[in-house]
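Throughout our pipeline, every protein is held as a single compact record rather than as scattered files. This encoding replaces a full spatial description with a residue-level series of whole-number codes. The remainder of this section carries one protein's record, kept here as part of the documentation.
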Amino acid sequence: MAAGKNRKTDDDDLIVPKDAASVSFVKGLLARGQAARPNSDGTLPPGATHEIVGETEAGLPILRRRRVY
């Protein structure tokens, strides 16, 4: 195995809607309020599990899963 192959990068955590399944997943998260932009202090609103970190050319959000510990 090549060195660093198991290493995760920031891009590995991104959910970029690019096919029917990922578009549906992202839209569902938005509809349920589970995807949101962070507050000014960096926290997510209550109930949000995914942070909106960008936008595709089609206008759909690019998400990153945020785990709460």
